[in-house]
Design a protein that fits this description.
22% strand, Flavin_mOase-like, globular, 5-stranded parallel sheet, FAD/NAD(P)-binding domain, single chain, FAD-binding_MO, 25 strands, oxidoreductase, alpha/beta, 27% helix, 12 helices, 9-stranded mixed sheet, FAD dependent oxidoreductase, 492 residues, flavoprotein
Amino acid sequence: MNDPSDTAFDVLVIGSGLSGINAAYRIQESLPDAHFAMLEARHELGGTWSQFRYPGVRSDSDLHTLGFAFHPWRAKNPIATGESIMDYLHKTAQKFDLEKKIRYRHKVVAADWRSEQQQWRVQVQVGDGEGGERRVTYWTKWLIMGTGYYNYDDPMKTNIPGIEKFQGEIVHPQFWPEGLDYKGKRMIVVGSGATTITLLPALVDSGVGSVTQLQRSPSYIMSLPQEDQPCFEKYAPEWLTLRYKRFMFTLIPILFYKFCIWFPSLASQFLVSKAAAQLPPDFPVDPHFKPGYNPWQQRMCLCPDGDYFKAFSSGKAHIVTDTIKSVVADGIELDSGDKLEADIIVTATGLNMRFLGGVDVSVDGEKVHVPSQYMWRTSMLTSLPNLGNIIGYWNASWTLGSDTASRLFVRLMKYQQEHGYTSVVPVISEQDKNKTVSASPLNSTYVRNAMSKMPKCAERGPWRPRDNWFVDNFAAWRGGVEDGLKWERVAQ
């Protein structure tokens, strides 16, 4: 069990979701003598999968790659429910004896790198946040941020004119009320992303009176079969089948992504035709399923076995592509002149992205302006020594990026020990700064809104944004640890 008086560590991992558990396993596996802990702000592990409770909540990536390489997803369905993902995370933590490393209700609020001590001084709020909390100071040589990419406390605030006039119930999926009674009622779900694609069939299946998806513009949506059984599975050993599935679910999305980027018109025609084939006969594809942007300019949505498309055959699910004139007491008036009546409005308009979990970071007491920094291999930031930040992929599952980052951090720690270094920090040249690029290739509203909060990338070498697991996996395994990094030995 954890000793609460123990506050000095070699490594602190912030967060115990997919990223935190993955990082903890890699540390335990490769640095068996390291003294480390995970600090979790919530009452349980799981991160996103602990918080999200809306109907039908499920992964928007396949579990063969969203799951861990060291503990493969064994179920046949690649798209999994939130409940089964939570069960998988608990079993992983128990199997590898990681749960004892987690300190719950430990919210990191600030971290200051102290050059003299060559350590991070971490301010932690301990308690449930209801008046009984206290501040505790931790010290650590390395700080790894596995805090995800969005604000757990505040959803993205979308300007919906007249929303205050609505006399029904307004719900944001991030804070879905327990026991919300929507059976037999009229619902409007505002949005076109992964949450909406998940909600629509789940609401239809659980007794909603009617549900209308109201979107300003459509998304590209692909159906993913739930029985992904290779022809040789009956004869091959399980370990081989699982590796094959993980490899194929890594390779095919990368190839498809490249196809979409290189041949956007062909990719668009393919995706729209696939959607049309799964909709009811004579269902209008344009404008509801014909986006005005190229594939992968926004994140692609997945639905298992086409359940989203099938929902429109129920007679309970409808879709409207229009813009909102104003919300009124009993529904939404549209710019087209039409009106949608509703008892409940769900604002599935995106997440409020946040970097470094909202932790205030500083160096020797001087606050670091994170948006001015550059990312080294999308995993470390200029100006911040011995700090690893875990970011998944925009165009693939989160855990693929999380694992390459965690293995890279472990390599850096080993290199530090072997050569007697006490700190490492990314340093970018002025020449590379002249070729600054965005950290994200997506132009979704929630991503655009967050760009001013995010650090930058550049065009060259370790400063480039990453989009290919095979390249990043090699870099984590065998890539150089000199280019773009400054190593120091400071007597303590």
